[in-house]
Amino acid sequence: MPAGSNKKRERQYEHIKESQEERGVPEGRAKEIAARTVNKERARAGEAKTASRASLRDKKSAYQRGGERSHRGAQGPTRDQLYEEARKKNIDGRSSMNKEELRKALGH
After folding, report:
1. Could you tell me the sign of the dihedral formed by the alpha carbons of 73, 74, 75, 76, in that order?
2. Is 0.90 surpassed by the pTM of this model?
3. How far apart are CA 85 and CA 27, in angstroms?
4. Are 35 and 1 in contact (CB under 8 A)?
5. Of 47, 59, 66, 77, which residue has the fewest beta carbons closer than 10 angstroms?
6. Tens-digit pLDDT profile for residues 31-72
Protein backbone atom coordinates (compact mmCIF):
# COMPACT_ATOMS: atom_id res chain seq x y z
CA MET A 1 0.00 0.00 0.00
CA PRO A 2 1.41 3.43 -0.92
CA ALA A 3 2.61 5.46 2.06
CA GLY A 4 0.48 8.39 3.19
CA SER A 5 -2.79 6.98 1.86
CA ASN A 6 -6.19 7.39 3.44
CA LYS A 7 -8.87 4.72 3.99
CA LYS A 8 -10.45 5.35 0.59
CA ARG A 9 -7.15 4.79 -1.20
CA GLU A 10 -6.48 1.67 0.89
CA ARG A 11 -9.83 0.21 -0.21
CA GLN A 12 -9.10 1.24 -3.80
CA TYR A 13 -5.69 -0.48 -3.64
CA GLU A 14 -7.15 -3.73 -2.27
CA HIS A 15 -9.95 -3.74 -4.85
CA ILE A 16 -7.54 -3.25 -7.76
CA LYS A 17 -5.08 -5.84 -6.40
CA GLU A 18 -7.81 -8.45 -5.91
CA SER A 19 -9.26 -7.73 -9.34
CA GLN A 20 -5.87 -8.24 -10.97
CA GLU A 21 -5.29 -11.49 -9.07
CA GLU A 22 -8.71 -12.78 -10.20
CA ARG A 23 -7.55 -12.16 -13.78
CA GLY A 24 -4.57 -14.42 -13.15
CA VAL A 25 -1.93 -11.71 -12.68
CA PRO A 26 0.86 -12.81 -10.29
CA GLU A 27 0.60 -11.28 -6.80
CA GLY A 28 3.72 -9.10 -7.12
CA ARG A 29 2.58 -7.63 -10.43
CA ALA A 30 -0.96 -7.12 -9.06
CA LYS A 31 0.47 -5.15 -6.13
CA GLU A 32 2.55 -3.03 -8.51
CA ILE A 33 -0.43 -2.25 -10.76
CA ALA A 34 -2.59 -1.37 -7.76
CA ALA A 35 0.07 0.87 -6.20
CA ARG A 36 0.77 2.70 -9.46
CA THR A 37 -2.93 3.26 -10.10
CA VAL A 38 -3.59 4.54 -6.58
CA ASN A 39 -0.51 6.79 -6.69
CA LYS A 40 -1.59 8.29 -10.00
CA GLU A 41 -5.10 8.97 -8.69
CA ARG A 42 -3.60 10.54 -5.55
CA ALA A 43 -1.40 12.78 -7.70
CA ARG A 44 -4.33 13.85 -9.87
CA ALA A 45 -6.41 14.64 -6.78
CA GLY A 46 -3.62 16.70 -5.20
CA GLU A 47 -3.11 14.22 -2.35
CA ALA A 48 0.52 13.41 -3.19
CA LYS A 49 3.53 15.57 -2.35
CA THR A 50 5.08 15.00 -5.78
CA ALA A 51 3.66 13.99 -9.14
CA SER A 52 5.02 13.29 -12.60
CA ARG A 53 4.06 15.50 -15.52
CA ALA A 54 2.25 12.56 -17.10
CA SER A 55 0.08 12.11 -14.01
CA LEU A 56 -0.95 15.76 -13.92
CA ARG A 57 -1.48 16.37 -17.65
CA ASP A 58 -3.41 13.23 -18.43
CA LYS A 59 -7.00 14.02 -19.42
CA LYS A 60 -8.28 10.52 -18.69
CA SER A 61 -8.10 8.67 -15.41
CA ALA A 62 -6.28 5.35 -15.30
CA TYR A 63 -9.65 3.60 -15.30
CA GLN A 64 -10.90 5.44 -18.38
CA ARG A 65 -7.65 4.84 -20.23
CA GLY A 66 -7.76 1.13 -19.48
CA GLY A 67 -4.08 0.54 -20.16
CA GLU A 68 -4.09 2.03 -23.64
CA ARG A 69 -0.64 3.46 -22.95
CA SER A 70 0.78 0.39 -21.32
CA HIS A 71 4.26 -0.58 -22.39
CA ARG A 72 2.81 -3.25 -24.64
CA GLY A 73 0.65 -0.99 -26.84
CA ALA A 74 1.25 -0.39 -30.55
CA GLN A 75 3.25 2.79 -29.96
CA GLY A 76 4.76 1.70 -26.64
CA PRO A 77 5.37 4.12 -23.78
CA THR A 78 4.81 7.84 -24.19
CA ARG A 79 7.66 10.33 -24.40
CA ASP A 80 6.92 11.39 -20.82
CA GLN A 81 7.09 7.78 -19.62
CA LEU A 82 10.43 7.32 -21.41
CA TYR A 83 11.67 10.61 -19.96
CA GLU A 84 10.77 9.51 -16.42
CA GLU A 85 12.63 6.24 -16.94
CA ALA A 86 15.65 8.15 -18.32
CA ARG A 87 15.53 10.49 -15.31
CA LYS A 88 15.57 7.53 -12.93
CA LYS A 89 18.57 6.11 -14.80
CA ASN A 90 20.23 9.55 -14.79
CA ILE A 91 20.77 9.68 -18.58
CA ASP A 92 22.54 12.89 -19.61
CA GLY A 93 20.84 15.14 -22.19
CA ARG A 94 17.43 13.54 -21.67
CA SER A 95 15.53 16.84 -21.52
CA SER A 96 16.40 17.72 -25.12
CA MET A 97 15.73 14.21 -26.51
CA ASN A 98 12.66 13.30 -28.51
CA LYS A 99 10.78 10.03 -28.06
CA GLU A 100 12.93 8.04 -30.49
CA GLU A 101 16.17 9.35 -28.98
CA LEU A 102 14.98 8.46 -25.49
CA ARG A 103 13.99 5.01 -26.71
CA LYS A 104 17.50 4.45 -28.13
CA ALA A 105 19.23 5.83 -25.02
CA LEU A 106 17.21 3.45 -22.85
CA GLY A 107 17.80 0.51 -25.17
CA HIS A 108 14.11 -0.01 -26.03
Report:
1. positive
2. no
3. 24
4. yes
5. 59
6. 999 988 888 888 877 777 777 776 666 666 666 666 665 555
